[in-house]
Amino acid sequence: MDGEYVLVVGSAVLDVKGKSENPLKVGTRQFGHVHSSVSGVARNIAENLARLEVETILLSAIADDDMGELLLAQSERTGIDCSHVLRVTGATTATSLTITNAEGESISMIDDYSIMDYLDSDYLLEHESLFENASIIVIDATLTEDTLDTLFELATRYDVKVCADPTSPLLAGRLCNYIASLYLIVPNASETVTLCNLEEPASDRDSAIRTAQRLVSMGAEIAVVTLGDQGLAYADNSGGGYIRAIHTEVVDTSGAGDAFSGAVIFGLLNDVPVDEAMRLGISAASLTLASEETVLPVLTQELLYDGLLVG
Predict the structure, then answer these.
(1) What 3 state SS string does 168-191 have?
(2) Over the chain (311 residues), what is each successive 10-residue block's mean pLDDT?
(3) Dihedral through CA 288, CA 181, CA 145, CA 61, nearest 10?
(4) Is-contact 279 241, C-beta < 8 A?
C-alpha cells in the first residue's frame, strides 16, 4: 500500500488488574496481586506494529499528569511516534480496572474512557496532513460519533483504507454506520451480536464463517470473527475460511486480540494473501498469550514467522 506510515487513532489506557488469592466476598478486603501496565486497543496495536518495524503514528489523548507521562514515555520507548498525542489538563487518563478471582476468571471490569471525548473533530482536522500521507488508518471504537464521522470523511478525501477493532460489546455499536467503509474489521463473537444484529453470537466454525460473510455483505472488504481458543473465521469477496488456534499454554489473555490485529495489518501492508495474514495474526496472538505482558516485548518479524511455522 502507498503511504509513509500507519496512522492509529484511539485509546491509550492504564490497565489495572487485581487478582484475589482467595474466594471473593462482597464488602471485604482481599489479599492478592495488583498489576498495572500501559494498554488501550489502539495503543497496543500501534506497539505491535512498531515492534514489527512498521512506522506508526498514534493519535490519542492522555491527562497532563504523572500517569499520562508514564503511559506516553513507555509508548515512545517501543518506537511509536507519540508526538501528536493530546495532553489534557484537568482530565483523567483512560483507565481500565479488572478484578479476577483466584482461578483467573474476570469478575468485574470498569472502563473510564471519558478523556476520549477530547479526541474530537477539531483535533483530527488539526492533524489532517497525517491522513493525507498515511498508508492505512487503524481505529478502535472509543471514538465518539462526531469524531468517527470526521475520520471517515478524511479517509475518503485522501483515499486511505480504514481498519477497525470494535473494542468491546458495549462500544461495538459505534461502528455500525461505518461497516461499508471499512477495509478490515476484527470483532470477537460477542461484538458481532451488535454489529450484525444477531440473536446470539457465533459459537462454532460454520456460524463464525457465516457471520464474517455477513459483515462482508454489509460492505466490509475483509471481516474476521475471533472465537478465542477455537480459532477464527474470516471472509472477503472471494469467500471465507477458518483457522484453528495454535495450542498455547496461556499465561495471560490480555492483548492477544490486539496482537492478532497488528500482525494481520502488518501482513496486509506487505501484500501477503489474506489467509497468510490471518495465520500471522494467529502466530502473534499465540506468542502474546504465552507472555505476562500485554504486548510481547521481544516481538520481531523473525519471531512472528517462526511462530507461524510452528503453528
Answers:
(1) CCCCHHHHHHHHHHCCEECCEHHH
(2) 90 90 82 88 97 97 92 95 96 90 78 95 98 98 97 98 96 97 97 94 93 97 94 94 85 85 97 95 90 85 79 49
(3) 40
(4) no
List the grid coordinates of 104.
483467573
**Is the pTM for the entire model greater than 0.85?**
yes
Residue found under cell 444477531: 198
φ, ψ (nearest 5 deg) of residue 36: -125, 150
Q: Which set of grid coordinates corresponds to residue 162?
A: 480504514
Cα three-residue angle 272-292-116, rounded to 5 degrees: 75
Quick one: cell of 237?
A: 469477496
Q: Measured between alpha carbons, how far is 131 from 125 in angstroms, rounded to an integer?
A: 9
Three-class secondary structure of residue 231 per DSSP: coil
Q: Say if CB 290 and CB 251 are below 8 A apart.
A: yes
